[in-house]
Amino acid sequence: MRVRFFDLSVPDRGDRVRRAEFVVGGGRFEAFGAPGALAGGSGFDAEVSLKGLLVLPGAIDGHVHFDDPGFTWRENFATGTRAAAAGGVTTVVDMPCTSLPPVTTRAALRNKLGVVAPKAMVDFMFWGGISGNAFEDPQWERHAADLVADGVAAFKLYMLSGMETFRDLAPDQMRAALKVLARLGIPAGVHAEDRELVVARTAEARAAGGNTPLDYAASRPAEAEIRAVAALIGMSCETGARVHVVHLSSGVALDRIRAAADEGVAVSAETCPQYLAFTRSDLATLGALLKTAPVVKEPEDRDRLWAGLADGSLQHVATDHAAGEWPGEKTTGSIWTDYGGVPGVELLVPFLFSEGVGRRRITLERMTELVSGAPARFFGVAGRKGRLAAGLDADFAALDPDEAWTVDAVALHNLNRYTTFQGWTSTGRVRETWVRGRKVFARTGSETWFGEPGAGQFVRREAAEAA
Length: 467
Ligand SMILES: [Zn+2]
Description:
The chain is α/β, with parallel strands linked by helices and about 475 residues long. Helices cover about 30% and strands about 25% of the residues. The structure holds zinc ion (ZN).
């Protein structure tokens, strides 16, 4: 099947776009050219007009919790990947901690693959994990090696976890785990908050009877992230592990990472839309709806994260999509027991396009790097995904860059439809999403169309991270 796509534009240098066309064969991009340049070629099975839309490389959301199998009243792979498709995300990388059994063994990985593959509408990768629980198994090193052989994208570790089924690692355990991951040649993604500090501040706040969103924020100060990041930088030097800080929220922690990376330490970080959009005063207003860990910080932090996206010191943007049951789990009567997490996969591309490119905080070229190129390299799939280039999987989103629309939670496609972005107006809307040359999503006016579940494929980490 060879298809010529025409009447479209693609990103060029900076904020520029250029008119183009391309041919897809066997699920991959075959060639790109100027308008009309490829029309003379023979043997097209079809020609598809993209009606002047802007084609972006499919986004890779490197941090989602689709809860399947195990916590499927919160999210599942059918609804999670539907929301991804509707948002121009063509690959998701699912976390190991929010499915049961957690992905800390080969058997758990294969079980999860069997459950989720028939539901997936977009391509997917799995994070493996080393939890405090897994660490108690004397065979934990062998399990980690098995997971690498089965193609996990990276490993998730926690310095502070709220989950009984996936506990955090004590500093000595963290060091031992990083040593093993360094030997296996695979990166570690770490939840970086200092356990002791958060446990102490939480106990203080609760003993004093505090029960407001700002009491929760006070229990997880920026200092907790800064201390944890400093410790991780030291451990990366000591063990040689490639360390990636997930969902970074504070400007000072980013400064530490930038300085260490400049000195050659193998450390990087991602941030998420919630830390780029909201601050503590929004938490006071939105309450549990915006409860996350880490918690949103100050306007200065938010601005420094944007600057980090622009100057390259933040490597990529992911959503940490984690929906609780709505409204039940978000309205338990106490900020301490309300579910921590927000859905986000469907809004990643519109958010960065509208708030980042539209407001000139980042260029269009930089945006495609942040959600496609950089995550593809980090997860070892740059030979297959992440760019509009001949030979790579034909994963792309077609966006109307001028369409203004207002976010309404009930119109999103994940299972539990609440969003901190309710009522937010975005300029730029995903109209079509294609995975390996197959259309999986289309929007015409207010009508939406989806492809068949099961079209998404498991993607294995292929190689060490390319420079
Ligand atoms: Zn997460």
